[in-house]
Input
Amino acid sequence: MSGRRQDLRLPGNDDTGVLLHAETEFEIVPMGSRDCAEVSALHGVRFSRAWGAGEFHSLLSQEPVFGFVAARPMRSSRSRCGFVLARHVAGEAEILTIAVNPKLGAPVSDGA
Output
């Protein structure tokens, strides 16, 4: 752990939210087109049918689609540790895909 403290406010039923304090070694940043190649490679490690960088780029170009990348801050670049890609339509959100670097997460089965 880096010892960096991060405060997160999660919405509560009364709209006041819940404040969490966590020691973190990751930063969560919005996914952009610059992330598509690395995200695609990580997806390929975790799933038998990998989505290509072009597929991620195409999805991210759609208005209701958004994603976040978990990264470890480094001197000159970020090391991608995981990601989530989701879509928001008609007041509901749907996770399209999610993956964590196998060195950091538990094994998963994609049903294949």
